[in-house]
TrEMBL record, chain B:
Residues 3-117 form the Response regulatory domain. Keywords: Phosphoprotein. The keyword Plastid does not apply. SUPFAM superfamilies: CheY-like. This is Response regulatory domain-containing protein. PANTHER family: RESPONSE REGULATORY DOMAIN-CONTAINING PROTEIN, STRESS RESPONSE REGULATOR PROTEIN 1. The keyword Phosphoprotein applies. InterPro entries: Bact_response_regulator, CheY-like_superfamily, Sig_transdc_resp-reg_receiver. It comes from marine sediment metagenome. Coiled coil: none annotated. GO terms for biological process: phosphorelay signal transduction system.
């Protein structure tokens, strides 16, 4: 793979492939046939959407054996690679490197291929292969043309395989395609052309003789078959074109091609056509045309006579664009000139005096030029204005208008070999001469010179010039290549001969012989010339010999050295010098003869006196001269002249005569020459004329043919017209039938409002007869019944202005028919070119309809009245924008608007509603048809007095007969009071809840109607349940199941009868324990006694219950405790009594009297103690515990008490500790009680260890404390807390009987508390207890 | 001689009943520990159990039930002593054969005992 550079030797080919629609498929097919090592590079261009990134590279890679690369800026072109253009980019390729530019705007894509192909072809010349595949439009045609011009090869996709055939078809039609094939075949063909081997022709050098031979053979064959001699065409051009043909045909080299060429007539024709390819365009080099228009045409027109035609010859006009351009330019100029035209108004007629002859070698081209139809692709060079003015757009393209076409005459003509036209004011021949070599150019220019009139103008192509014939033209404008014919008296013509086989018979050369002079005269003159005329030579301006007359040996001789024709070299002696002088100083206008005499010439001992006369042979710059020699020998013996004087005189005289004769001879000869030349001229002019006639003839032929075809067309059109006519008659009959049978009355009036026609329906409906209607003025109908003002208005005012109308209503009372309402439709029919028109009127009787409508109106207004008078707010809204159609005063009051809001859309009428849910509902109802109810809606509009209103509103869809929704109705009922009431209720509910939430009672409220429960905070907190749970399970789930049963059993009836009741029941708390509550249920009833609401309150009485239980327990205990000693007492007493009375045998002394009585005593003590405790307790309960306060010494009391206890218990050891200051003020007895309690407890609860310590101390500054400490069994933590509770006895089965009721410590606490003292206990299980009480120190 | 077991935790009452019954010629054992009842009944060949309903916190009916459920001694006659005659039902339900309320008449008591021992 290497970089492709056009200028390298053996550079590889670039294949340019372009497509538009359907390109992807085509590209894929193409690429799939591409081989890996073809040494070609492939560039793919497709018209892409600039907004999308193209995925082409990826899509194509899968079908390709070679890498597919997206073109990027700066990318180097390499062979055996495929390049894809990205979207929105314009590519260029310079010296093997890509550049990319962003596309500007949308335009430009349609010439993507053309521009790129042309650019690449320009740089890479013949190394380009262009391929146009599927696509619409005509992009690529010009590109292919350019490639072909540069000797590249072109392909187009065939119609069968192309998805879109526009582009390939167009290119094919334009003849710029070498091969038409399917994409894969195209690839194969390219390979088959053997391009990679650099064609042998590339290395042909110009002077290579062998190729020259072949070339000339080819040219010869061409000349034979096509009659055109290309041998003086530029060799390079010819070679290139031939080489292209070689490659296209697949020949290996030129020799092979020659063989093929010889035997193939079509190939010859093809090559001929190829050689004639020329690129032409409209207004090529626009500035040149501008120059023509501004500078040249004015002068040309001014310079010619009024009646003289303006003649222009466009030589090598190809397909005619050049000629038409000149025509347009000229016409434009003429029209632009207008009043400035020296010819005044006649300028339009001048156009008939303009003739543009346009000629070309190629018959094909001329045919196209004659047609004057060009595709839009070829119209690039034309201004839009010109396009509009000078062209008509037809199906096949743009066609030049008649006027333009008439100005031009097209003919096949060879300006080199055919006789040129004459008397031209302007000749243009652009970009033709470049193909010719110097000789041909000279010939052409000479012909043009001939063709032009005096001071005529020649226009050449940009790169051409008149340098080969500088004497023939003067330059007017070098840059635009405009030249003026250089005038001379003579016209000469280059000889016609070698280049062409003569088509026209030529006139004989020597026209001087008008009357068929016999040859003898010729002979005689020849002899005379030969023998009696002086020796002369004809030389040209350069003093080169042209012809020799007579024996010049005396005067001229060849000298040694290089052979020369120059007279200076040939002339002897000083002759050359003299001749030169004469020529140099030659004055063509001088009357005197230009001669020099007595030039000495010595030759071989003889001396001559030579005379030379020089004469001009023609009056062109490049003139030839005739040099006439004469001499006489100068003899030394001059004195002998006397003797022979008479002879000499005679001789002299004779000589003079002879000289004179010679002069006459010369003169005659000259005149003869002149005459001959004039005849030649005339001859030439005749030829010119013939040529012209021939041209005109051709033109006429063509016109005739065109006329023929026009005639054919007309015949066709005629046939069509005939058919149309038949159709028309049919149609007419048809419409007449319609009018007759139609049920609606129809009238046709003329412009004067007279009735032209009425149909049956009209007569029937309006009860008029035909006679009375036809031709009458419409107003006269039915005895002037139709003289209705409204009809007047219609026919006279409305119709003339509007031309048609519909549904014009007229109501009129007709005699004999009655009142009729009608709708009229009217239409004016106006003929284009006539003043006549007719008025069509059709009637529709709507009387019945009108009545029905009125009835409807009535009912509607009744309906509206109903709405208006309703006390409820009602509004009817119509259409999607919810226009207020009807609104009653009640609604207006709600909206606080007045009735001027009718017909306005709701959002505008009541802006306060905009954006509210009301609007949303309305729109929903309108679109879905589903009614919407909204309850207790507050008025969205705040009233000025601030009062609030509430409504129940229903929005319903209104439908028409077909069921389509046409509006929405709003109907509201005022529910303000209800709402307020509800609010009150809600408020009170709220209050109720707030209240109940603060109560410690567990409250449950049940709404009978709603079947809803309400639980206050305390309930929820107590039960630990959430509302949710309670909702699911109902409140009695927290009741102890037995209690619930019991409640239902005992109070079920109450519930039914809505009677209040109370019950003690257990409710489960959040720890899962059931606690006793007093449940009171209160029922709120309505006036009829129906239950509305149950309110249940639960007061937790567990403590009470506990106490109750304890009391019960206590009573039991009391019972037991009291009864037990009584039983003992009774037992002993009864036993003794029994023993005493019944057991007489036993002596009294043996009876256990003492022991029993002792036991009795003991039990009585016990009883007493218990009773007093009980009494204390009850008194405590009733708060009747009065304190007898007295001051005493605590230590003394303590000591006394200890003594007492020790006395009764005995086995106890009590230590004591006293302080000095222990004065207190208290109830001594009671405090003593407390002490005894403490001490007896200490004793009781330390059965083993009887060490008890009582201490009096001052714990705090103002307190006297007494502590009783034991080391007994101690108290556990649980009991420690409750030890001072009433009835609390430490449980445990290890102790013996309880010595008390559990009241002792409770009483002690009460007593101390009453004294404002403190009491506490410290104890540890197993280690003993320490009870302490404190009293205020009395100081 | 019939052997009687008294289960009562009040020493005075227990002693009184014991002396009363012994006066009447019965062999009497006084127990303050209801748990030892079975042992006592079996070991001492007890013919009658006198059970106080309230024995240092324990409900006597429990003891009664327990005796009745006890294979060894379930047949033994039991008298329960209670402070409240409202407890009668509870005692009888527990399986006592008879019951007497405190304070009781001596004669009443003695006759009940005699009945059960015959």
């Amino acid at each position: 793979m290497k970089k492709i550079n056009a200028h390298e030797e053996g550079a590889d080919y670039i294949v340019l492939i372009g497509a538009s629609a359907g390109g992807l498929q085509a590209f894929k097919e193409f690429l799939s046939a591409v081989k890996k090592d073809s040494s070609l590079s492939y560039i793919f261009l497709q018209h892409l959407d600039p907004s999308h990134k193209s995925l082409l590279p990826e899509l194509l890679q899968s079908s390709s054996a070679i890498p597919v690369i997206e073109i990027s800026h700066g990318l180097i072109l390499e062979s055996d690679k495929a390049y894809v253009l990205p979207s929105n980019s314009i590519p260029t390729l310079t010296e093997g490197v890509f550049s990319l530019h962003k596309k500007q705007g949308k335009s430009g894509s349609s010439h993507l291929l053309d521009n790129f192909f042309q650019a690449v072809a320009n740089e890479y010349v013949n190394k380009v292969i262009g391929v146009v595949l599927s696509g619409t439009g005509n992009d690529g045609t010009r590109g292919l043309k350019e490639i072909k011009n540069k000797q590249g090869i072109t392909f187009a996709q065939d119609l069968n395989s192309a998805k879109w055939s526009g582009m390939p078809q167009h290119a094919t039609d334009e003849g710029v395609v070498d091969f038409v094939l399917p994409p894969a075949e195209i690839v194969k063909k390219i390979y088959g052309l053997n391009l990679s081997k650099a064609p042998v022709i590339e290395h042909i050098r110009q002077d290579d003789d062998s190729y020259d031979n072949i070339l000339s053979q080819i040219l010869q064959i061409l000349q034979q078959q096509e009659g055109m001699d290309f041998s003086n065409y530029k060799k390079n051009t010819i070679l290139r074109r031939i080489k292209r043909r070689v490659v296209l045909n697949g020949n290996k080299n030129l020799i092979e091609y020659l063989g093929y060429f010889k035997n193939n007539k079509d190939e010859v024709e093809q090559l001929f056509n190829d050689l004639l390819i020329s690129v032409t365009d409209f207004f090529r080099d626009k500035s040149t045309f501008d120059f023509l228009k501004e500078q040249i045409f004015p002068k040309l027109i001014a310079g010619k006579g009024r009646e003289e035609p303006l003649r222009i010859w466009v030589a090598g006009c190809s397909t005619g664009q050049e000629a038409y351009s000149v025509a347009m330019c000229l016409k434009d100029y003429l029209e632009g000139v207008g009043e400035d035209n020296p010819y005044g108004e006649v300028y339009t007629a001048m156009e008939d005096h303009i003739k543009i002859f346009a000629t070309d070698l190629s018959a094909q081209a001329i045919a196209k030029a004659r047609k004057g139809i060009y595709k839009s692709a070829e119209m690039g060079g034309i201004d839009k204005a010109y396009l509009k003015t000078y062209f008509t757009h037809t199906n096949s393209g743009y066609q030049v208008i008649k006027e333009l076409r008439k100005m031009c005459v097209f003919a096949e003509h060879d300006f080199l070999n055919d006789f040129p036209f004459g008397s031209m004011n302007l000749v243009t021949c652009r970009n033709v001469l470049i193909y010719m070599d110097g000789e041909l150019q000279k010939k052409a220019l000479t012909n043009f010179h001939y063709a032009l009139k005096e001071k005529g103008v020649l226009l050449l192509g940009n790169s051409e010039s008149i340098s080969s014939v500088p004497e023939l033209f003067n330059s007017i404008d070098k840059s635009h290549k405009i030249y003026r014919r250089s005038d001379s008296k003579r016209k000469t013509l280059a000889p016609i001969g070698k280049n062409k086989v003569i088509k026209i018979p030529k006139l004989p050369k020597s026209a001087a012989h008008k009357n068929n002079k016999p040859d003898t005269r010729d002979y005689a003159e020849t002899i005379l010339l030969e023998n009696y005329t002086p020796v002369a030579v004809v030389i040209d301006q350069n003093l080169d010999l042209i012809s020799i007359h007579g024996k010049t040996g005396r005067y001229l001789e060849h000298t040694s050295g290089n052979a020369s024709n120059n007279i200076l070299k040939l002339a002897k002696g000083s002759l050359g010098f003299e001749i030169r002088q004469l020529v140099k100083n030659f004055n063509p206008d001088a009357k005197k003869k230009q001669a020099k005499d007595n030039i000495k010439l010595i030759e071989a001992d003889r001396q001559y006196s030579v005379s030379i006369e020089v004469r001009l042979l023609n009056d062109i710059k490049n003139s030839n001269y005739l040099v006439i020699f004469s001499d006489y020998e100068v003899k030394e013996e001059q004195h002998e002249v006397k003797q022979k004087d008479e002879k000499g005189k005679r001789i002299g005289f004779l000589e003079e005569e002879l000289a004179g004769l010679r002069d006459e001879m010369l003169t005659a000869s000259e005149e003869h020459q002149i005459v001959e030349e004039e005849l030649q001229s005339a001859n030439e002019e005749l030829m010119s004329g013939t040529e012209e006639l021939q041209t005109l003839n051709e033109e006429l032929e063509t016109s005739k043919e065109e006329l023929q075809s026009t005639v054919e067309e007309i015949t066709v059109v005629n046939q069509e017209l005939y058919n149309l006519n038949t159709l028309l008659t049919q149609e007419k009959k048809f419409s007449e039938a319609i009018v007759r049978t139609i049920r609606d009355p129809l009238l046709i009036l003329n412009k004067k409002l007279e009735i032209i026609m009425a149909n049956k329906a009209f007569y029937k409906n309006f009860k008029v007869s035909e006679i009375n209607t036809m031709g009458r003025s419409v107003y006269e109908l039915g005895n002037g019944q139709w003289d209705i003002p409204k009809l007047h208005t219609l026919l006279e005012s409305i119709l003339p202005v509007k031309e048609s109308f519909k549904d014009y209503e007229v109501t009129h009372y007709f005699q004999g028919i009655g009142k009729r309402s009608m709708l009229l439709n009217g239409q004016i029919l106006q003929e284009e070119d006539h003043d006549e028109g007719s008025i069509f009127l059709s009637f529709e009787d709507i009387t019945a309809r009108k009545e029905a409508r009125n009835k409807l109106k009535e009912s509607v207004s009744t309906h509206h009245e109903f709405i208006r008078s309703s006390p409820w707010p009602i509004a009817i809204l119509k259409d999607e924008d919810l226009k207020v159609e009807i609104v009653n005063s009640a609604m207006l009051k709600v909206w606080e608007k007045s009735d001027d809001i009718v017909d306005q859309p709701l959002v505008l009428a009541v802006p306060e509603l905009a954006g509210t849910d009301v609007m949303r509902w309305l729109q929903e109802v309108y679109s879905t048809g589903i009614p919407h109810e909204a309850f207790q809606q507050s008025n969205r509009i705040k009233r000025k007095d601030g009062k609030r209103e509430y409504f129940d509103v229903i929005y319903q869809a209104l439908r028409n007969i077909d069921g389509k929704i046409i509006g929405v109705s709003i109907i509201a009922t005022v529910v303000t009071d209800q709402v307020f009431l509800n609010e009150k209720v809600r408020k009170s509910e709220k209050q109720f809840r707030q209240l109940t939430n603060h109560l410690p009672e567990l409250i449950v409220s049940y709404d009978v109607r709603d079947k809803t429960y309400y639980y206050n905070k305390s309930f929820l907190d107590f039960t630990g349940l959430s509302l949710k749970t309670l909702d699911k399970e109902e409140w009695h789930c927290v009741l102890h199941p037995d209690d619930y049963e019991r409640m239902m059993e005992e109070y079920g009836g109450f519930i039914e009868r809505a009677e209040n009741f109370e019950i003690e029941l257990r409710i489960r708390n959040k720890e899962g324990n059931y606690l006793w509550c007093l449940n009171r249920n209160h029922c709120i009833t309505d006036v009829e006694g129906n239950a509305l609401r149950w309110i249940g309150t639960n007061t937790i009485i567990q403590r009470l219950k506990d106490e109750e239980k304890r009391k019960e327990g206590f009573l039991k205990l009391v019972s037991h405790e009291l009864k037990t000693p009584v039983t003992s007492i009774k037992g002993y007493v009864q036993m003794l009594l029994s023993m005493i009375s019944k057991d007489a045998s036993r002596p009294i002394s043996s009876l256990p009297i003492e022991s029993s009585l002792m036991r009795v005593e003991n039990q009585i003590t016990r009883l007493t103690h218990l009773i007093s405790e009980m009494l204390d307790l009850s008194r405590m309960e009733e708060s009747k515990l009065d304190l007898n306060l007295e001051e005493f010494n605590m230590c003394e009391l303590v000591e006394e008490t200890i003594q007492d206890v020790q006395h009764s218990s005995g086995m106890v050891h009590i230590d004591s500790d006293y302080i000095d200051e222990c004065q207190v003020k208290a109830d001594k007895d009671r405090i003593g009680q407390v002490l005894i309690n403490f001490i007896t407890n200490a004793i009781k609860y330390s059965p083993e260890n009887k060490d008890i310590r009582v201490k009096v101390f001052q714990e705090e500054p103002d307190l006297i404390s007494v502590s009783v400490k034991d080391s007994g069994i101690g108290i556990n933590e649980e009991d420690l807390i409750k030890i001072f509770d009433r009835f609390y006895r430490v449980s445990g089965k290890n102790e013996g009987t309880y010595a008390g009721f559990g009241i002792g410590l409770y009483l002690a606490k009460e007593i101390i508390d009453r004294h404002n003292g403190k009491i506490k206990v410290e104890s540890k299980l197993g280690e003993g207890s320490n009870f302490i009480f404190s009293l205020p120190h009395e100081t | 001689m019939k052997r009687i077991l008294i289960v009562d935790d009040d020493p005075i009452l227990g002693t009184m009943i014991q002396e009363m019954l012994e006066w009447k010629g019965y062999w009497v054992q006084l127990s303050r520990v209801p748990q030892e009842t079975e042992q006592n009944v079996v070991e001492q060949n007890i013919d009658l159990v006198i059970l106080d309903k309230l024995i240092s916190g324990t409900d006597g009916t429990e003891v009664c039930e327990w005796i009745r459920n006890n294979e060894e001694i379930k047949e033994i006659p039991i008298i329960m002593i209670t402070a409240m005659h409202t407890s009668k039902k509870a005692c009888m339900d527990a399986g006592a054969d008879d019951f007497i309320a405190k304070p009781f008449e001596m004669d009443d008591f003695l006759s009940k005992v005699g009945q059960l021992l015959n």
